[in-house]
Amino acid sequence: MSSLKKSLLDQGMKLMADPRVLKMMQDPRVMKAVIAAMSVPGKVTSLTHDGVEKIAKAMALATEDEVTDLKRTVRKLEEEVARMKQREKDKR
How far apart are CA 91 and CA 4, in angstroms? Predict the structure, then answer.
């Protein structure tokens, strides 16, 4: 663990042991604010991902999900071709 991470963890543990912080954390308004703050990174990621997809579609570019689907389809088709070749070879 990095020293910065360890230091932050230690400071957080000290804060959580403080009775004033414990009392404050029992307030539903504070907990609601903490939960809202914790959800912000996920919301930002989601909004960014949606924006990138809109731009990609506007520019007629393939998105990462579309490329993944295409790769999966190509792999399945290659496997099917290999099976058909093997069947043909076995018939001879």
Answer: 67
- pLDDT tens track for 21-80: 888 888 899 889 989 988 888 889 998 988 888 898 889 888 888 999 999 999 999 999
Considering only CA atoms, which of 17, 14, 11 is closest in space to residue 3?
11
- 49 occurs within a structural domain: no
- Whether 17 maps to a domain, the answer reads no
Q: Which structural domain, as residue segments, surrounds residue 83? A: 62-92
Reported pTM = 0.46
* In-domain check, residue 89: yes
Given the structure tokens 């290659």, which residue do they identify?
Answer: 78
Element (H, E) at 34: helix 28-58
* Contacts of 1 by beta carbon, 8 Å cutoff, 6+ apart: 9
